[in-house]
Amino acid sequence: MRIVKSLRAYAGTAFRWQRGRQGTGYDKMLLLTSRWPLPFDSYLIRYPEGSEIPPHTDPVQAGRHYRLNIILKSPKSGGEFVCAKPLFATGRIKLFRPDACEHSVTQVVGGSRYVLSLGWVLGKNAT
């Protein structure tokens, strides 16, 4: 029964644009998620012109939260990911701990920004 409820919830939200949590103008589309064997989610994130994300962290109840962001399309300016201590970063690839490191996105100017975002949580004893 729990599996059926999970599948219905997924079907009701997957592949549909939803407003982002920060209320700053970005949209997200759930692509795939699972709670077992490794809790993870994957989203396509759209940042239209004028959107931004203020500095914040994303706490989790237990374990360590990791997120890999792959920038698919950059705007003409702005839309820069800011994180003081990423685990790995190139121009288009960002791996970081959103629960442990404050992060943000500067205001998008001149176009839009699209990001493929993959996140997962490892247990308390994982490294």
Give the strand order, joined by hyphens, for the main sheet.
Answer: 1-2-3-12-5-9-8
Unreliably modeled segments: none
Count of DSSP E strands? 12
The chain-level mean pLDDT equals 90
- Please describe the biggest sheet, giving its number of strands, its sense, and whether it closes into a barrel: 7 strands, antiparallel
Structural domain count: 1
Rough shape? globular
Structural class: mainly beta
CATH superfamily: Jelly Rolls
Computed Rg:
15 Å
The CATH architecture is Sandwich
| Topology pattern, helix = H, strand = E | HEEEEEEEEEEEE
Distance between the termini: 34 Å
Could you please say which CATH topology applies here? Jelly Rolls
Strand content: over 45%
Helix count equals: 1
Helix content: under 10%
What's the CATH C level? Mainly Beta
Distinctive features:
127 residues, mainly beta, Jelly Rolls, seven-stranded antiparallel β-sheet, three-stranded antiparallel β-sheet, 1 helix, 9% helix
Written description of the protein model:
Keywords: Oxidoreductase. InterPro entries: Oxoglu/Fe-dep_dioxygenase_dom. With 127 residues, the protein is mostly beta strands. The chain has a single domain, classed as Jelly Rolls. It contains one helix and twelve strands. The protein has one helix spanning 2-13; strands at residues 17-19, 27-34, 40-47, 53-56, 64-73, 77-78, 81-83, 88-89, 93-96, 103-105, 108-109, 113-122. It has a seven-stranded antiparallel β-sheet with strand order 1-2-3-12-5-9-8, with no helix packed on it. It is globular and about 50 Å long. The mean pLDDT is 90.
